[in-house]
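From the pipeline queue, job 12 of 40. The input is one protein chain; the requested action is below.

Action: predict structure.
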Amino acid sequence: MASSLTCAGVVWAFLSFLCAAASCVGFFMPYWLLGSQLEKSVSFGTFRRCSYPVRDESRQMTVMVEQCGRYASFQAIPSAEWRICTVVTGLGCGLLLLVALTALMGCCVSELISRTVGRVAGSIQFLGG
């Protein structure tokens, strides 16, 4: 297999992929903030939450739902700041994955990545990070 990358480029490609994968896993996991509420362990991220309070109208009290899940809709995310964070982090993860996968393809395909494409990809990675 021919490659359009130098040794440093190959290392960059694999590190880019590992960092993009770690960013995406962090984005999808609901463990950004950990704490306790009603004597239960709770956690949530930008669009997922675990062990959250719900009002039980039949018993007229608040109970804890001990399961993980996404918010029902984008508007159900608690605040505008968390909604913005969800969009920005999701776009960043998408850009990081795009660059990482392109760099990995450059390891297998000759003349795919030139010096200019590498610089643009690095700039996109900086924005994505």
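Job complete. The longest strand covers residues 61-70.
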